[in-house]
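Kindly review both lines to help learners:
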Amino acid sequence: MFEARFQSFEETADPSQGAARLAALRSALAADGLDGFLLPRADEHQNEYLPPSAERLAWLTGFTGSFGFVIVLPEKAALFVDGRYTVQARSQVDQKAFVIVNVAELSPSEWLKQNAVRGQRVGYDPKLHTVDGFERFEAAAKGAEIELVAVRDNPLDALWTDRPAPPLAPVAPHDDALAGEGAAAKIARVQSELARVKADALLVTDAHCLAWLFNIRGGDVAHTPLPLGFAVVRREGRPDLFLDSRKLSNAVRAALSRIAEVAEPKDLEGALGRLGAGQAKVRLDPSGSAVAYARSLEAAGATVQRGPDPIAKLKAVKNAAEIAGARAAHLRDAAALCRFLCWLDREAPKGALDEIGCAEALETFRRETGKLKEISFDSISAAGPNAALPHYRVTRATNRKLTPGFYLIDSGAQYEDGTTDVTRTVVIGAASEEMKDRFTRVLRGHIAISTAVFPKGVSGAQIDAFARRPLWEAGLDFDHGTGHGVGSYLSVHEGPQRISKLGTVPLEPGMILSNEPGYYREGHYGIRTETLVLVEKRAIPGAEREMYGFETLTLAPIDRRAIEPALLTTGERAWLDGYHARVLAEVGPLVDRETRAWLEAACAPL
């Protein structure tokens, strides 16, 4: 009945091979006169989702999370992960070969400083390390009196004999009506920014920025419609766009050639050389661009101007067309999600459902909209203790039946008019008093963000604690950020805005973020309630400052059966009842009779 086309449930990495592959890497390094190697989970664009050909860390270690870093030394090897992945890493990695380290407790650069031996030569691939990130290793190397050696060819590529070929998905235009602005106008805005910061050119290595600027989309990585490539935008004149010609139809090439000089990726090095020959001042984002490109510019005679890529900020603030598209996409997605939740409520008590079947069902309901292009990430379909893993990915080996307790489904969709991301935690059977308490505290934090009003200039770091206070009051917390930025038919995890302790970028009207506090009791259950919100202006009588708040975009019931009403304030109850009334009014007309009846019950006043 149901099937998944955009998500695989196979285990793609093999931890049993970790020790042998690590030994092979050490032998290859020794043959090249190296004692160790630094390996981030990265490609030359610093993508979150990597093409299969760039999943070197997963091939070496077996770890498949979205963040990881490996340091290999002659007698020791360490895998660094963050709080989202400590449990997952222990289950996927041979811990006799790799020690697993939480980066919150010890950074990779500090570990290198503590464990390297004076005089050792440690290799690295300069196309995989950002400028900022690598400087920390340079400082560590100086302190440890070791030498860091750039390699021309990544040694893992020769060892990885069945390495997939680089992707060649077709590049497609993204309609100006959906983008809300033509590429030529966007280029002009970027050029104005370059004039403002007194830069002669901008090097674009982030594929998301490339896609936004030229109004193109692709399929080179999973779940995000990216065409991998590069660009050089000059303060004056036409930009250079570097895309593999095999991805371009004649029509797409002709359209792009009207606004840019189109060349092959291999021609980028020559373009950087020409910038150097002209002694250009080139803007480069040190947190997102690789060391290799900065060094090429400097070696050629250019001056590297460090600073944020201006495209990232322009992309983050959605225009009227993108906002309208987001609302339409979320409403369409809500109808599919509510059909799924209705089906889940009907079928789960029978005891036959499992995590994979639920993920397949939800994708099917989304495909039946006729508008689904992709899912925006692998659905986190998690029952019981699996839900305590914030970034759990179900495989056929880990697949669990839905049994009494909590079931968490975190999922999203890619439509041409918008990107969605939503989490609901559902009760199967009955919830214990403890589970209701935790669920309600998470909900209270969610409501605190949803109802927040704040002055212009406030960043996500300043409101992150709003979501945590109800948990803190019970001595509880969660180890991930409260929210991330979201793109417009682009990345489901978009910067520079975010709601977290590290979110220092001021929030502006037009930015879309997630609101997703959670609670995770390892080995037992997990809870997360997530909606997407849009920053908007708020008119407050008598206000002395420009004030902002959030419009909630996601429309899906929050399970009333898991709530302890006595923990909610009058205002919180009013918000929840009002939200549910809106869900029923807007989604009800779009669903079948059975789902409508289910919605009426799910959205009843508390």
About this structure: The chain has a mean pLDDT of 96. The chain is about 35% helix and 20% strand.
